[in-house]
Amino acid sequence: MVKNKYAFFRGEIRPIEEAKVSIMTSALHYGTGVFEGIRAFWNKEEEELFVFRMREHYLRLLRSARILLIDIPYSADELCHITLELLRREGFREDVYIRPIAFKSGEEIGVRLHNLESELAIFAVPFQLYLPEGGIRVMVSSWRRVEDNAIPARAKITGAYVNSALAKTEAYLAGFDEAIVLNEDGHVAEGSAENIFIVREGTLITPPVTANILEGITRHTVISLAQDLGIPVEERPVDRTELYVAEEVFLCGTAAGLSPVVEVDRRKIGTGKPGPIFLRLQELYENVVRGKVEKYRSWCTPVYSSPAR
Ligand code: PY5
Question: Whole-model pTM above 0.70?
Fold first, then answer.
């Protein structure tokens, strides 16, 4: 059942039924679109909806678009403004997930990026839990992560999600909750739609941005929060077997939030329960995203009491 009433499409906020594309749309055939996933969190006490790190998400959308030669005729600030308008029209009073997408909309057979029009759409839907809560069981996928010189992972390209979907479904059909994908060089890249952190001897470790990962905004948030909590952080290549011997492993992403991994390839991680460093970070993260931590309040844009209103 569709729970959202509107979409921003072709320059206007319109009824969602009017936001449709042709079967001849180039991006449908060739995966030549870029997108974002942004969350807004409902704060009961303040009766306010806060969009988390919205500007950073739109800056990443613009960077992804630059890589695919997609022309988005709006600045990050304009995109934020449109999103706030859309959310106000919807009037959500619950957690929501916002999906902007820009794509090659030309209706032509040839595969290319040049000389094709593009379009932008934004819609928002009530948020649904992305991964099971309380600890997930993962497997290392037999699929490898797309290389920067094949399909750049740092851009959030629709076509690259074939790689994610193959890995996710392989894991699901094998009875796991999520997949971890390795690079062609055999090092750990990330989950199918999440970045990964491990803890070794109290240090938080995550693969570097050159490891064919999406440069995750939640990853950046986790690094900042860890530094605040005095937890040392290292960005360096991670071996597959480091996952097996780590004290803690967790995934993070906009949709997934912070999700503890309790088993990798049928090996129990730590005690088989969410670890202490994860729990500290998760507690802080949950408060930060709902605008409850003064220091990070600037990451949270209020929808209903925005000064720009
Ligand atoms: N890696 C991949 C491949 C991702 O798709 C995502 C986000 C992340 C990492 C985490 O990035 P961020 O913290 O910036 O969200 N995935 C999308 C999301 O909205 C979901 C795609 C289905 O979480």
Answer: yes
